[in-house]
Amino acid sequence: MNIAIIDSDIITRKKHRFPNLACMKISGYHKNLGNNVIFKTDYNDLNNFDQVYISKVFTDTYIPQSILFLPNITYGGTGFFYDKAEPLSNEIEHYIPDYNLYNEWIKNQTGNTEYYKDYSIGFLTRKCFRGCFFCVNKNYKAVEYHADVNEFFDNSKKYICLLDDNILGYKNSIKTIETLIDKNKPFQFKQGMDIRLMTNEKAELLSNCKYKGDYIFAFDDIKDVDTISNKLKLWKQYCKKTTKLYIFCGYENTVEDLLSVFQRIKILMKHGCLPYIMRHENYVNSKYKGMYINLATWCNQPNMYKKKSFREWCEADIARRNNNCSTERYLQAFEKEYPKIVKEYFDLKFENFL
What we know:
Elements (H helix, E strand, L loop, with lengths): L1 E6 H5 L8 H12 L3 E5 L10 E5 L17 E4 L1 H4 L8 H4 L9 H4 L7 H4 L1 E4 L2 E2 L17 E2 L13 E4 L10 H9 L5 E3 L10 H8 L7 E4 L6 H14 L4 E7 L5 H16 L3 E6 L9 H11 L2 H6 L2 H11 L5 H12 L1 H7 L9
């Protein structure tokens, strides 16, 4: 059989730096059956294939709707169905990924392609018990074991990347993390770990392992401020390495949501941690769209964030653009409407909390 596999996210998104795990597993499975597998980066001539698999992770990734009705098309992923996406068949889900799938595509890329080349990628656990209203895992009630690291481990790769939804919420998280440590390869958990579940034992284990990159946790709701503050104090007793927390925002189009972003940033400053603004796609419908963009541009560049307050960053951006730019308009409009928020948060500076 002639099989085509399409990762829709790399076709339409300008900056996409992570492979589609489902695509790699489907490829590995079909190659093992002896089928001819082609990785396509367009939607042309799909009728030439016996079967075409299309996957996407992001809901706003564009795809021509007409092709989804072709008889040889199978499509899936959170980008199509979000929290109702069907899982892969068990035999494909637990098949070792084809880490060579993106090889030809990589040759023409100028951006960072390390996740396509240098990582073994997979899940040790899946699902979550939190039930967050915005999350693809909101329909589940527990964290469950998924696979042993050997299922997706490739010793030729430099690193290991885990996509677990809530590793610290798994009842055997300590032993599971120890299986990674035994591989003697630097590893990382790509999703923001649940700092609310941190314990002394977990903190000691994670802080002393070969961890790749920054430790990343999540701070999704300002209501968790007391718990997260206490857990960050615990974490900082063990770890001196850079710690970053995802700041989820933009789902609700309210000034209260934007205010909570500033509140969470201030809290992280107090603990010497870096924020990373994670905007839900709803933010584009907010009257504060420009403020979300400016906050993300400021916070998500650590070198800039560490040196400048939000106001200083805005002023520098205005000067760079020779004034009369969107940054200036957003700043002036928000300052006029919410002077109290501006007074309390716009001049906060990371270095002043150290």
